[in-house]
Write a structure and sequence with these properties.
Strand content: 25-35%
CATH topology: UDP-N-acetylmuramoyl-L-alanine:D-glutamate ligase
CATH architecture: 3-Layer(aba) Sandwich
Shape: globular
Helix content: 25-40%
Number of domains: 1
Structural class: alpha/beta
CATH superfamily: Ribokinase
Oligomer: single chain
Largest sheet: 9 strands, mixed
């Protein structure tokens, strides 16, 4: 539960967030869901036959981070690349519907990242990914667009799904530093070195283990986390730990936040929600502990939803 002394005045927070502008840059994708029923096995192969009866398209990756921010009332913009194809047009439509300022870079030779999930009776049966390498011409457009936009925003989130949009994240971080704009990163890269000097990174356990190696005890984990935080000159490292909650590492030590989820239904996009809420609160206060506390609560709420979902301002306010 939230410390009584750390509770937020949500009426004031709502007004403050409406005055803030956050730019999200990173890997934009479309999450497509096909829902259906199954009650027999195919005679052609030992696989279930699924009769599709419902379709749903949702913003994914960096676009889901932006969607979370928009639902919190933040004035949000998104920078990334899509193809000039059906999925790219759908993303643009969804961004418009969500009142997100889009700065999409496009190319006829690039195919929009698409994740197609087929579900039957609320169970995911298969996921099909459509993606390809991003041409350097689009990466140059992202860097150019970032430099043009940075002065318009109070804070930046880099949402790195390791799909290539943030291949040169260090250049974007350097641009933000020159303009004194804080940067938060949700990392997926095999190396964290390109995130050097940012305010916060929010790896999950799997991502952190790939960088730091395994550990035998909680104490060893803490040592590894602090070493990485110091080596990369990070203000904070927020380690998301699924059912174990989250642990925040700072120059003065650490703070652990127990998991708040009442029921885990689907973890898709939970990290997007965590960094969105963290950034939103940090845009109005420098209290990293308060921001982490509510980011942890928000993550616990969205894992109880099906598929890629967002946190609603009222849900965060109503949390007990």
């Amino acid at each position: 539960m939230v410390d009584e002394q750390k509770k937020i005045d949500f009426t004031q927070l709502k007004h403050q967030l409406q005055q803030k502008k956050i730019l999200v840059a990173g890997d934009i994708m479309l999450d497509r869901y096909w829902f259906g029923d199954t009650n027999r096995i195919s005679p052609e192969a030992p696989v279930p036959i699924i009769k599709i009866n419902k379709f749903d398209d949702r913003l994914g990756g960096a676009a889901n981070v932006a969607r979370n921010l928009s639902h919190l009332g933040v004035n949000v913009g998104i920078l990334g690349c899509v193809g000039q194809d059906e999925a790219g047009l759908k993303i643009q439509t969804l961004l418009t519907e969500e009142c997100i300022n889009s700065y999409l870079q496009t190319d006829y030779d690039y195919t929009t990242i698409l994740k197609l999930r087929v579900l039957a009776r609320q169970q995911q049966m298969i996921r099909l990914d459509f993606e390809e390498n991003i041409p350097d011409s689009l990466l140059e457009k992202i860097e150019y667009g970032f430099e043009k936009l940075i002065n318009q925003y109070d804070l930046v989130i880099l949402s790195d799904y390791n799909k290539g949009s943030l291949k040169y994240a260090d250049k974007l971080i350097s641009i933000a530093a020159k303009h004194n704009v804080p940067v938060l990163v949700d990392p997926k890269d095999k190396s964290f070195s390109k995130y050097r000097g940012v305010a916060v990174i929010t790896p999950n356990l799997k991502e952190f283990r790939e960088i730091a190696g395994s550990w035998e005890s909680e104490e060893e984990l803490h040592i590894k986390a602090q070493n990485i935080r110091e080596q990369l000159n990070l203000q904070y490292l927020l380690l998301t730990r699924s059912e174990q909650g989250m642990t925040l590492f700072t120059a003065s030590g650490y703070e652990h936040f127990n998991a708040q989820s009442k029921e885990v239904f689907d973890v898709s996009g939970a990290g997007d929600t965590v960094i969105a809420v963290l950034a939103a609160i940090l845009s109005v206060t420098d209290d990293i502990y308060l921001a982490a506390e509510y980011a942890n609560i928000a993550g616990g709420i969205v894992v109880g939803k099906l598929g890629t979902s967002s946190i609603e301002f009222d849900e965060l306010q109503a949390y007990k």
